[in-house]
Amino acid sequence: MSTCSIFLHHQDDPVTKDHFARLQEFSAAETVAISTATPLGSGETIAGYTDSLWRDQIQQRPDLHASSTDLLLIDWFRNRRVTADRYFIVQWDTLINQHVDELLADVAECPLAAAFTRLADLEPEWFHQKCEAVPAELRRFATGMVHFSCAMLSHAALEKIASCYTNDLQGLGQVDGELRFATLAARCGIEPVSMGDSAQVTWKPFQPIGLVETIYHPVREQFVDPMPWMGPSEIEVLVSLLRPHFHVLEYGSGKSTFWLADRVAKVTTVEHSAKWLDRVTPLPENVDILFAPPAWPCRKFGPAEDGQFDEYIDVAKDRTPDLVLVDGRARVPICRHWAPRVPTILHDAHRPRYGELSKKFLAGNLARILPDVENSSGGAG
Question: Would you say 350 and 365 are in contact if contact means Cβ atoms under 8 Å apart?
């Protein structure tokens, strides 16, 4: 079964170029870029189309620019130079880091699939305001696709839906694309299904802290390789301490987790904040997460209190790491436990409350905790 990936965009800035390059990398078959303005390389633009739904729509309602990508797809399909069995639709602000065929494996035979679908009888709150602009005769077909990006359609389905854009588009000009497209599909008798692996499509604000085998949306800034929140000299020293076969135990997840995972065999990260953990996940496959919340709420930057982080301190004591990086909570008792056993590195070691620890500064505020006798006892930290 042949697949053609369709990349829909409005500009040719570095973010758009990077995302198209990534789509090409992860698409086994042909990829086509179609633009409302400047094309990407040998890509296409609607400028050469005699008739354009997108152009007509935006001339009437410029405020709907971001909500009319479905019209750009229909414009391309009507003027296509490539035909395939199915089409994978990607918008410019979607960052692909998973093989397209893997994502579509469970829905390969479906006429229309999206990461998530919306049905009026199951999610009336989603349709409450959106459906006000839908003509009364079409409201019984009201269906949503979230997001329009990462949809998959068979050729026959897209051909049928494109014909609906000719016959039934009247009155849908003020409806956004993710509702309009799915509603017209339902009007044609084509019900969208949710992808079985839709959890792989990360619909949350993108944090440029790393990439795993997933799909990110929306991504409107150029991706940069994740770097720990450390100074250049501190990172240089940390690099010198790592070996490819290492298991690193890390207290405090974040950019450093992705950075470490790319350089060692295994990372175990201990995290106390569920909110922060939700923000940084998904994590690479060679990362184990140990979640250990405090016994009672803690101040964001305040020192740990006695007994507050006992679970956090103890949760990884059965692990056998090659190196420990301490950059989270309860740093004093954690350093005291690990320093006599394994090389233990403390970040922000200059803070006065860590003065009781014996340490050797390596660079900046990065220090190795010295395994002396006093460091083997407990404490709050």
Answer: yes
CATH node for 232-376: 3.40.50.150
Number of Cβ within a 10 Å radius of residue 237: 19
CA 381 distance to own-chain centroid: 35
Provide the whole-model pTM.
0.74
Q: Name the least confident of 8-17, 147-156, 165-174, 232-241.
A: 165-174
Q: What is d(CA 205, CA 359) in angstroms, rounded to the nearest whole number?
A: 39
From 180, 184, 175, 145, select the one nearest 64 (Cα to Cα).
Answer: 175
Contact 305, 380 (CB under 8 A): yes
Helix (H) or strand (E) holding 154: strand 152-154
On whether the CB atoms of residues 35 and 49 are closer than 8 A, the answer is no
Separation between Cα atoms, residue 64 and residue 307, nearest integer Å: 55
Q: Which residues contact 277 (CB under 8 A, 6 or more apart)?
A: 253, 271, 289, 291
Answer for the pair 266, 247: CB distance below 8 angstroms, yes or no: yes
Give the neighbor-by-neighbor strand order of the sheet with 95-96.
95-96, 215-217, 201-203
Which range, 95-109, 149-163, 207-221, has the best average confidence (pLDDT)?
A: 149-163
Same fold, 3-217 and 232-376: no
The amino acid present at 85, given as its one-letter code, is D
More confident residue, 202 or 117: 117
- Per domain, the residue ranges of the chain are 3-217, 232-376
Strands in 283-350 per DSSP E: 287-291, 323-326, 344-346
Indicate if the pLDDT at residue 62 is higher than 70. no
Strands 366-369 and 344-346: antiparallel
DSSP 303: P
Length of the chain as a residue count: 381
- CA distance readout (Å), 156 to 54, 138, 195, 287: 22, 22, 19, 43
- CATH fold label, 3-217: Spore Coat Polysaccharide Biosynthesis Protein SpsA; Chain A (3.90.550)
Peptide bond into 124 cis (omega under 30): no
Q: Is the dihedral of CA 102, 42, 75, 204 positive or negative?
A: positive
